[in-house]
Amino acid sequence: MRVLIVLLILVYCNGDVVKSEESVSNLQNAPNSQTGFAFEMLMAKLNSLEHHFVEKQLKNEEQMTVLSARIDHLVKTVENLSWIVQNTAETVNHLGLNRKHMQHNVTVIQRDLVQLLAGQKLLVTTHQFGEYLRQKGCNTSHISFLSDEHYTTYRSCNKVPFSQSGVYSIRPEKPFKQPFTVLCDQEYESGGWIVIQHRFDGSINFYREWAEYKDGFGNLDGEFWLGLERIHLLTASTPHELVILLEDFDGNKTVAKYDRFQIGSELHNYALTRIDGYTGTAGTL
Q1: Burial classification of residue 232, based on how many CB atoms lie within 10 Å of its CB (0-12 exposed, 13-18 middle, 19 or more buried)
Q2: Within a domain: residue 143?
Q3: In a domain, 36, yes or no
Q4: Is there a domain that residue 138 lies in?
């Protein structure tokens, strides 16, 4: 821009110089008074042109200074943005590396928390037991020697003296030698139900090997399968009813209930040996 302006000015000035030379030539042929006046006019015009040229040059220099400052600012801005992009990329990579560790840690924490909650549900406190006995009109002054084992293990869920569903320890009649934990539903039809399968959110894979279906899998605080061997021992020791509760994602519910339910042993591949007395809306097995 500056070079172009200068060239234009030079051309303009050269044109004036040519004209000035012609004027000077003419003035030489004129009288002296006219020559002096013409010379003064020429000098005044040249001074005006020079002043105009200097103003233009200064203005162009100011504009160039402003543009240079803006360019410097843009360069710094681009450099800052480049640093931010690079730093962000490094941060994203770092977060990507940490994400797997965080997911693993969260999984471990969730597992430990579920185990902790399950343990808390198993521990019926002395205070709760004492409150229950006082409600029944019993004298609690002579039971301080009882340990947790004496009053947290029940024959079955229908013997649990609490109306809250949860995980409890039961020890049914023979052939059970050791107590085991089950999820007791204390709300459906007045409670007392042992939950043998709980499946509701897809968090547990139910496509398992035979051994896992025999022994059971999952977690009593989430989705689980109690295990064919336990179900066989439970139904073989005393008569049991069976209730199947189904609910879809829209909240539609249906139920199938059987008055008698029993399965055989592993020798008979845990086949159904008795299933009768159906009522409900889900259809028969």
Answers
A1: buried
A2: no
A3: yes
A4: no
**φ, ψ dihedrals at 197, nearest 5°:** -150, 135
Tell me which residue of 135, 134, 155 sits closest to 143, measured CA to CA: 134
Tell me which of 46-60, 71-85, 128-142, 154-168 is least confident.
128-142
Query: Does residue 146 belong to any structural domain of this protein?
Result: no
- Tokens, residue 211: 């051994």
Beta bridge partners of residue 254, listed in sequence order: 246
Query: Bigger pLDDT: 122 or 257?
Result: 257
Query: Is the pTM of the predicted complex or chain greater than 0.70?
Result: no
Question: What is the C-alpha separation between 36 and 27, in angstroms, rounded?
Answer: 9
Tokens of 199: 């499946």
**Total number of domains constituting the chain:** 2
DSSP H or E stretch at residue 260: strand 253-263
**pLDDT per position as a tens digit, 173-203:** 776 778 889 999 999 998 999 999 999 989 9
Contact 114, 219 (CB under 8 A): yes
Go through 219-228 and write b for each residue having 16 or more CB atoms within 10 A of its CB, e for each that does not: bbbebbbbbb
Structure tokens at 259: 């008055």
**Going by C-beta distance under 8 Å and a sequence separation of 6 or more, which residues neighbour residue 227?**
213, 214, 215, 216, 217
The first and second tokens of residue 208, run together, are 């398992």
Please state the separation of Cα 111 from the chain's center in Å. 18
Contact 124, 151 (CB under 8 A): yes
Measure CA 143 to chain center.
Answer: 50
The rounded distance, in Å, linking the Cα atoms of 1 and 61 is 11
Q: Amino acid letter at 132?
A: Y
